[in-house]
Amino acid sequence: MVIQLGNFEVNSGQLVVADPCYELDRDTIIMGVLESALAGTWVGEVEKVEVRDWGEANAKLTAYHHSVAEQAASLEWIKCSFVAGVDSGQAGIFDIDKHRIPDADAPDGKQDQDTEWYFACCDLTESGEEAGVMDGGVVSRTGMGDGAYGVYKAVNADNQIVGVKIVFIKG
Fold this sequence. Notes:
11 strands; six-stranded antiparallel β-sheet; 171 residues; globular; mainly beta
């Protein structure tokens, strides 16, 4: 079952795919920054599946540019060179300018601690859908908890990224 989560804006042209608990690190394999993402309105959706002896779980988190909404089900997916490593049971797709926004009133030296932004991600993944959109991104509880999950991208004829998918449960 695919659930539409809503829309969010991408303005920077760069998408971070990561567990929201991680600080941005371009030199690690457990997160990635996708360059040349098409700016504009993106759609977030989560696919849920029934898992034997577990119940309903989030299988995939997908975000795609609204211009390909009609073709979303038939996008050609390319495996990325990194995975979404997860330690907080959640992962997301975020505009780089909206990723890990520090609290305005954070004391010096404390900007790297959990922020209102991170807690907003947690609120969404602890909601009824276990996923949701926020300012500049979409986040989901992972299907089976912590681990390393495959990340895929779709591109248009101009080689701009128009879709990103994290697969938590293959099926």
